[in-house]
Amino acid sequence: MADILVVSQRFWPEDQKINDIVQGFLDRGHKVDVLCGKPNYPAGEFYKGYSTFSPKKEILTNGTIYRAAEIKRSSGSPIRKFLNYASFPMAAALKAGRLKKNHYDAVLVYQTSPLTMAGAAFKVAKHRKIPVTIYAIDIWPDSIIEELDIHSPLLKSRIRATANKYYNGADRIVAAGDMAESFFLKQMDMPRFKVAEIPLCPDERLLQEIRSPLIMERYQGSFNIVYTGRLDEDKDIETVIRAAQFLNNKGLRDIRFIIVGTGENLDSIRQDIWKKGLNDMFFIEDLTRPDEISKFTFIADALLAITLPEEDSSLKFNTEVIDYMAAGRPIISLMGSAEKRLISRAGCGFAAETGNPEELAEVILKLYRMETEKLEEYGRNARKYQMEHFNRDECIDRLLDVMLGKDIPKEGEESSVFIMED
Fold first, then answer.
1. Alpha-helical runs (H) found in 129-236
2. In degrees to the nearest 10, what's the CA dihedral of 34, 38, 41, 43?
3. pLDDT tens-digit map of 49-76
4. Within 10 A of 1 (CB to CB), how many other CB atoms are there?
5. What is the pTM of this model?
6. Beta-sheet strand order (sheet of 172-175)
7. CA 401, CA 168: separation in Å to the nearest integer?
8. DSSP states of 247-263 as a string?
9. Rounded CA separation 390/326 (Å)
10. For the packed helices 320-327 and 372-389, what is the interaxial angle rounded to 10 degrees?
11. Which strands form 223-228's sheet, in the order they lie side by side?
12. Is 155 helix (H, G, I), strand (E, B) or coil?
């Protein structure tokens, strides 16, 4: 069994993919320490029991959570995000100085923004002479330049140099989607043996079907479209609201949009719904316990995956579609081309262009008018495709092999990777 250090600014009790990955490591008998920040995402306020400097340590079943200080996101404005992103890497690097005495066999950086958190991982790895694997979720420099709305050519150049330094310094790079080929292999000219492509594990909570009589009664007798996730700037909620307005004008008031989650844009979304007179069509549920998410996916006639178009959509694969597949429900995608291809191959739903409410309304109508038997077939197709192509246990085992160097081929040979087909 291995001793593993995971570096991730976001971690439990925040609702993050890395939580399930760490649990997978623990389930396999590995000892896992996590170096992370103080939970305040996505709403921007510290969770109950947490503050900038406390607590500093918590216990896992077979490991320890080390929490470094960070400035909370608050409103989520560019300046607040910058302060949040700048504070954690500095505090984590200081904390890493004290972790160098611990024994580790490998370090995994779960790399959302900021990439600079990897500095803490390199600090421990250099002292212990162990490999660093970066699981690249947000690809720098593009993601941070877009998120912070950076226009300065000088600043962009410095961010690009920083990204090159960290990515090239890692022993292995794991990409969650087909951006591995387009970015790390081509743009960064990395050797094939250094880059592996492993999709993020499906959310294990969605593999369970939990019936809640209260929720079932609340939403019975309507066609329920459920969205579960963050309500941030990168989510095209506006198109969903305009599509609902289109359906409302047609008199289809038995279609309900159930939004399960919170985020920086929650208040403005509520106001927009109210101004357009759509209170009878939209229901926002505050999910206080993320492990109960399947209570809402269970009552869904369709699940809605949404995002905004990015400047280079090939650099980021949105994993909502894979999670929804695990729930075994038809999927409506308001996303990029990669997600659309995936839904088409699986035969589990339909896609609409982001920013096109009329097309989204037509897609919703197509499912609304569909026979129950056909809807159930789409759901079965989704679950079947997920189990065959995005099996959680296989993804975690593969990630461990990469981190611990069990899959490294000789230079010039192909690395055995999961590939998302075109």
1. 142-147, 153-169, 179, 213-218
2. 160
3. 999 988 999 999 999 999 999 999 987 7
4. 10
5. 0.84
6. 57-60, 63-67, 31-36, 3-7, 106-111, 132-136, 172-175, 195-197
7. 20
8. HHHTT-TTEEEEEE---
9. 9
10. 120
11. 282-285, 255-260, 223-228, 302-306, 331-334, 349-351
12. helix
